[in-house]
Amino acid sequence: MPLPRSTVQALQAHRTRQLEEQRAAAGVWQENGLVFTTEIGTPLEPRNVLRRFEVLAARAGLRGVTLHTLRHSAASFLLAAGTHTKVVQEHLGHSSYAITADIYSHVGPAQQREAADRLDQALRW
């Protein structure tokens, strides 16, 4: 799946730091082929990841934001930006187009106004 350039750059920088950690932990580093690890190459504990995320979100003033909230926001932003629902469905791994459309597409006043304006244009001869 294609990733945003900014994500690719962040992952490349992360890999550079990880290789430095690997050299520093020579003799104790456990190679697992994982992208995200502890300082010695072992898998991250999910609860520790969640705790760290909560601290960083709070520091950024994003109280109440969860990892699932980020997933939902990303999907909603993609749809609002005009990304085809099928693309977003595949990105999220949903089995059904309808699930993606029903859960993540939101219609606000601006979209309602745009629809009315388009209908107005279509009705003009």
Automatic annotation (TrEMBL):
It comes from the Bacteria. GO terms for molecular function: DNA binding. The keyword Ubl conjugation does not apply. This is Phage integrase family protein. Pfam families: Phage_integrase. Keywords: DNA recombination. SUPFAM superfamilies: DNA breaking-rejoining enzymes (SSF56349). Residues 1-117 form the Tyr recombinase domain. One of its GO terms (biological process) is DNA integration.
